[in-house]
């Protein structure tokens, strides 16, 4: 996958259900948007930060779509971390 890609290049199907397991692509996308981090596709094979990390260049198209769907959902809902 290209490093020049943006999330707007990823077609996300409507009404598809994603696996939301902790550390998975959807979860990492959702968390990145929630914490106002940039769109940087990745996920973990197991729990976040306690297992091997999979970077964009090693992600499948399905993983990339799931990450982007999670990111878009959190952003659409306006659900973000409020830093106090």
Task: Explain briefly what this protein structure is.
With 84 residues, this protein is mainly alpha-helical.
Task: Pick out its properties.
84 residues, mainly alpha, two-stranded antiparallel sheet, 2 helices, 7% strand
Word description of this protein:
It is a single chain. 32% of the residues lie in helices and 7% in strands. The chain has helices spanning 25-34, 61-77, and strands at residues 42-44, 53-55. Helix 1 packs parallel to helix 2. It is globular. The mean pLDDT is 92.
How many beta strands in the DSSP annotation?
Answer: 2
Treating each run of at least 4 consecutive H or I residues as one helix, how many helices? Answer: 2
Q: Specify the biggest β-sheet.
A: 2 strands, antiparallel
Give the CA-based shape: globular
Structural class: mainly alpha
Q: What share of the residues lie within helices? A: 25-40%
Low-confidence regions: none
Please trace the helix and strand order, writing H or E for each element: HEEH
Give the amount of beta strand, in percent: 5-15%
- Major sheet strand order: 1-2
Question: Which helices and strands occur, and which strands form pairs?
Answer:
Layout: H1 25-34, E1 42-44, E2 53-55, H2 61-77
Antiparallel strand pairs: 1-2
Helix pairs in contact: 1-2
